[in-house]
Design goal:
With 745 residues, the protein is mainly alpha-helical. The chain is 68% helix and 3% strand. A two-stranded parallel ribbon has the order 1-2. A two-stranded antiparallel ribbon has the order 3-4. It has a two-stranded antiparallel ribbon with strand order 5-6. β5 and β6 form a beta hairpin. α16 packs antiparallel against α25. It is flat, with a radius of gyration of 42 Å.
């Protein structure tokens, strides 16, 4: 579009286009000489495909056949054959060198001379670029104060020579490769020739013409002729009144019409514009078209032919009024959209500001941010399962009953209530369904709350607290797998005793670490709680018999051992939790979480621990923010229905978006808590794998090898990136000295 519109200023040119076509393109009176010259060269010179055919003829049938083909073709010449031959000779000579010293050795010599860089420095840059570390290669060039363009040039030439090395034996592919190289150089030379000629720099244009085959000096004269023609036509078009814009329709926005008028009379040039409308146009039909049509069918106006253009002030005023109305309507729509967007903009600023702080590590303490999330989650669990257990269960029961009730028929689906409350009230499954179906919503709530009171009396609320806490950090140490002893040929009894001793020591350290400093108990009571747990664990281990242990019966014995061990540990934890006040319990849980975090910090190091915190925070925000944006789009589409209930959709949108934003904030905190201890282990494994791979590749590169994938795609192998150089061989840097006296010292 831009190329077409650019020539709309030529004498006699009629350009039909939309008002949006070629925006930003200058329409020069008399035509655009640069575009006309480019069209001239492109139409009268050879195309890319033609040069590909010549290259294929050269490689497939020989030089003589190629020269005959070039002489018989009106747009080719023997100079192009010579250019293709010299390009092929250059690439083949490079291949000979590459066969001796590989691509890296050849490029090291070539680029070292071009950029004045030491051989060993170029080799290091090439290895970094080829391994995908282009940024590191640029940093290294900056350190040694060399041109960083070497890195990009190295990547380009490595790709070029590597490609030719792979396809040079295939005639069709090699011909395409050589044809593309020559055509790209010729195409760039055409553009340079046009720019130099139009700028009046004939000496530079003649130098380009002399250097590039099939781009003789006659093309300079033809480009100058085009330039003279445009200058001559410019004067003629100027005398004729310049560019004339004829609009076939008025846009609903005056701004668009003015932009179309602005095509004419640009920068002091003469020109004019005129619009012709029909009563059937969209704008006229929407605003007063029928009234105007009926007026024109009366009196004298009815005798005027339909194809006669009319111009009078009433029509201009009607069009202007119609455009003002449409613009006002569009303004109200944009204003309404902006008011909706303002809500999201403020929320977006808050989220992006927090995300930017996390990315940069400025104005935020990762430890404090994560500790706040854990403190909030722990406080909520303690409040729900210890302090306000009955109100919490009552709220959940009431909500479940309300959600399971159909408003239209006031039908209560008891089965749905039971399924949803199995986690909070396990005994609900033992109730008589028929009896529950006969109860009203209020009676059902009272019956279910009886189970909640029983849970609190039996201490089951503490069990639920442990289960809820276990979502992000298990409180109970895992039971060892004694069933694995079935694979030992001997020493099973001794192995069981060793495991028992280590596990009991582990549980004791957990007991002391978690509760010893927080529980206000007499030493005798504390010792009694621990002794009871230790006796129970010893009994569980002793009941696991290793006599006749086999792979077949090991799973059953392990299951019984695990059930006994879990019961002992659960009772130990219940005894200690029951002895704590809510404030003590909160402090104990927070202290235990902090101690586990510090253990991980020591394992993976401060730097990686900080990286993990950053990744976790960003992942939590990104995940919830994406879901929030989707939910907000749904809300925006649906909130218009609020008008049916005599409620302002805009107000409802703001209220519900604020609620959803706070819910999203809570979900971010919950995601942090739920995934901290589950993801940090995988992060540690990933870091170890990355370090091992980097160390392996670095060691291989230092030894002069590349780590490459096998052809079948399975695994990797080492390959020399340069042939091994003997001590008495010539140094590959090209100094002429022996390797042992040059780079091998």
């Amino acid at each position: 579009e831009a190329l077409i519109v650019a020539q709309a200023g030529r004498k006699g040119a009629v350009t039909i286009s939309t008002n949006m076509a070629g925006r930003g393109t200058d329409i020069l009176l008399g035509g655009n000489p640069e575009g006309m010259s480019a069209d001239l060269l492109e139409s009268e010179m050879f195309k890319r495909g033609t040069l590909h055919q010549l290259a294929f003829k050269l490689l497939d049938e020989g030089e003589m056949a190629a020269r005959e083909y070039a002489n018989s073709h009106p747009k080719l010449s023997e100079e192009l054959v010579d250019w293709l031959l010299s390009t092929k000779k250059e690439m083949d000579a490079a291949l000979v060198e590459i066969e001796k010293i590989q691509v890296i050795g050849y490029l090291a010599k070539k680029l070292g001379a071009a950029y004045d860089v030491e051989y060993n420095d170029v080799v290091k840059v090439l290895r970094l670029v080829h391994s995908g570390f282009s940024a590191e290669a640029r940093d290294y060039l900056e350190e040694i104060d060399k041109d960083v363009a070497l890195a990009e040039d190295a990547a380009r030439q490595w790709d070029m020579y590597g490609r030719y090395q792979r396809i040079h034996e295939d005639t069709a592919q090699a011909a395409q490769f050589l044809g593309e190289m020559v055509f790209d150089k010729h195409y760039n030379a055409r553009a340079a020739l046009i720019r130099a000629t139009l700028a009046g720099n004939r000496a530079e244009a003649e130098a380009i013409s002399a250097e590039i085959p099939a781009l003789g000096p006659e093309w300079i004269d033809r480009i100058e002729t085009v330039m003279e023609q445009t200058q001559r036509e410019r004067e003629e078009v100027w005398q004729l009144g310049g560019l004339h814009v004829i609009g076939s329709e008025r846009h609903e926005s005056r701004r668009i019409d003015n932009q179309l008028r602005g095509r004419a009379a640009r920068q002091g040039d003469p020109g004019s514009s005129r619009f012709f409308l029909s009563l059937e146009d969209e704008l006229m039909r929407r605003f007063g078209g029928e009234r105007l049509k009926s007026w024109m069918n009366k009196g004298v106006m009815s005798s005027i032919p339909e194809d006669m253009p009319l111009e009078f002030g009433v029509l201009d005023k009607m069009i202007a009024n119609a455009q003002e109305r449409v613009e006002g309507f569009n303004f109200d729509m944009r204003k309404n959209i902006v008011e909706y967007d303002d809500v999201m903009n403020k929320q977006r600023q808050a989220i992006y500001s927090e995300r930017r702080k996390i990315l940069l590590g400025e104005g935020i303490d990762y430890d404090e941010r994560i500790d706040e999330a854990f403190a909030s989650a722990i406080a909520e669990l303690v409040d729900n399962y210890v302090v306000n257990y009955i109100p919490y269960i009552q709220g959940e029961v009431s909500r479940m009953i309300q959600e399971a009730t159909t408003e239209a028929t006031d039908t209560l689906h008891v089965n749905s209530v039971i399924v949803r409350l199995r986690g909070l009230l396990p005994d609900v499954v033992s109730l008589d369904r028929a009896e529950l179906n006969e109860l009203s919503a209020k009676e059902l709530e009272e019956r279910l709350m009886e189970l909640a009171y029983e849970n609190e009396e039996n201490g089951y609320n503490l069990v639920q607290l442990m289960q809820a806490m276990g979502r992000f950090l298990p409180l109970l140490p895992p039971i060892p797998n004694l069933g694995a002893l079935a694979g030992r040929k001997g020493g099973q009894l001794q192995a069981r005793e060793n495991i028992r001793r280590e596990y009991i020591q582990y549980v004791r350290s957990f007991f002391d670490e978690f509760v010893a400093e927080q529980v206000e108990l007499e030493p005798e009571e504390r010792d009694r709680i621990w002794q009871e747990a230790e006796d129970g664990l010893n009994q569980a281990f002793s009941q696991f018999s290793v006599e006749g242990l086999s792979v077949k019966n090991a799973p059953g014995r392990q299951l019984r051992f695990k059930q006994k061990g879990d019961e002992v540990l659960r009772q130990l934890l219940l005894n200690t939790l029951a002895a704590m006040e809510p404030e003590q319990l909160t402090v104990a849980l927070e202290a235990y979480v902090k101690s586990q975090q510090e253990k991980w910090r020591k394992q993976i190091g401060d730097e990686e621990y900080r990286n993990f915190q950053r990744l976790l925070l960003l992942d939590s925000i990104d995940r919830e923010w994406r879901d929030y944006l989707t939910a907000m789009d749904d809300l925006r589409r649906e909130v218009g229905l609020e008008a049916l209930g005599q409620r302002d959709p805009k107000v409802q949108y703001k209220l519900r978006s604020a609620e959803m934003f706070m819910d999203m904030r809570g979900n971010i905190e919950q995601h942090i808590v739920d995934n901290f201890f589950t993801q940090i282990a995988s992060h540690q494994a990933f870091i170890k794998q990355q370090e091992a791979e980097v160390a392996y590749q670095t060691q291989a590169h230092d030894a002069g090898f590349q780590v490459v994938k096998r052809k079948d795609g399975k695994g990797s192998q080492l390959r020399r990136d340069m042939p091994k150089v003997g001590r008495n061989d010539p140094c590959p840097c090209g100094s002429g000295k022996k390797y042992k006296y040059c780079c091998g010292r």
